[in-house]
């Protein structure tokens, strides 16, 4: 449960709202006042367009591969989620958030499986400081064909030999930081993403440089390189970036600069 805030925090929030001309989504999340928000990431390569179901009813429809839906409000409490072929309510895969809470962000991912589809769930308590403009970053492993992964978000040219992973030991169907924990915080700037098998310093993926903006909210998801599940090859991955926000958008695919991938 989100920590109870003091009257000082409310005063700070009021000052921030005044300074920003009335905007306050992040303030509402941080103080645990905003209704829970949920969105869906289609990370199932070769999968059909789907409808995202909440408690058995479609919340968002006709979602294609790599699409990230806009955040939507949901009620607190026990919440069942699923996805189904568009126009159907027969779940391809389903899951449950037992205690949806105000101020939290929830992510549901359609994932590949060796046969059919799977589901991933993330509960993000959004414990960002009221005065912070750092970017929030989390990783999720949706690569059924990959081992546990280490992910580095570092400046271009960094030798990772003596650097700790930004997100270490990311296992299939799991997030780092884990569901229920707050995201990592990074200063805005220019970075590259490097992925290795956990414990190794040999990259299996290295991106071009990219800009991580202040106040960005990123979920970096590893997905199989093949366009269909029949094309799975060990260690062959893409990185998709699902950017938090209230506008429906495709995930951004980071290109791999390694010639053997």
From TrEMBL:
Protein source organism: Paraburkholderia unamae
Keywords for the protein's UniProt record, in alphabetical order: Signal
Protein name (database record): Uncharacterized protein DUF4397
Cross-referenced PROSITE patterns: PROKAR_LIPOPROTEIN (PS51257)
Highest taxon in the source lineage: Bacteria
Pfam families: DUF4397
InterPro entries to which the protein is assigned, alphabetical: DUF4397
Endpoints of the signal sequence: 1-21
Annotated ranges, domain DUF4397: 37-152
């Amino acid at each position: 449960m989100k920590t109870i805030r003091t009257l000082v925090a409310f005063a700070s929030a009021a000052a921030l709202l005044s300074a920003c001309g009335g905007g306050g989504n992040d303030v509402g999340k941080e103080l645990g006042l905003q209704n829970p928000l949920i969105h869906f990431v289609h990370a199932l390569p070769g999968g059909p367009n789907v409808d995202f179901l909440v408690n058995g009813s479609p919340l968002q429809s006709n979602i294609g591969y790599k699409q990230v839906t806009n955040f939507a409000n949901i009620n607190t409490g026990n919440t069942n989620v699923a996805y189904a072929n568009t126009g159907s309510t027969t779940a391809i895969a389903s899951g449950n958030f037992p205690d949806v809470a105000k101020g939290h962000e929830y992510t549901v991912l359609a994932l590949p499986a060796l046969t059919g589809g799977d589901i991933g769930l993330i509960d993000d308590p959004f414990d960002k400081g009221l005065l912070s403009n750092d970017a929030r970053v989390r990783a999720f492993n949706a690569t059924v064909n990959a081992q546990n992964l280490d992910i580095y978000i570092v400046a271009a040219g960094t030798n990772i030999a003596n650097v700790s992973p930004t997100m270490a030991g990311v296992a299939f169907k799991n997030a780092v930081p884990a569901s229920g924990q707050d995201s990592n915080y990074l200063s805005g700037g220019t970075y590259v993403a490097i992925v290795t098998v956990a414990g190794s310093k040999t990259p299996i993926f290295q991106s071009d440089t990219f800009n991580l903006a202040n106040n960005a909210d990123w979920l970096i998801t590893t997905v199989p390189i093949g366009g269909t599940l029949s094309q799975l090859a060990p260690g062959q991955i893409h990185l998709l970036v699902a950017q938090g926000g209230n506008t429906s958008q495709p995930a951004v695919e980071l290109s791999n600069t390694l010639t053997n991938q």
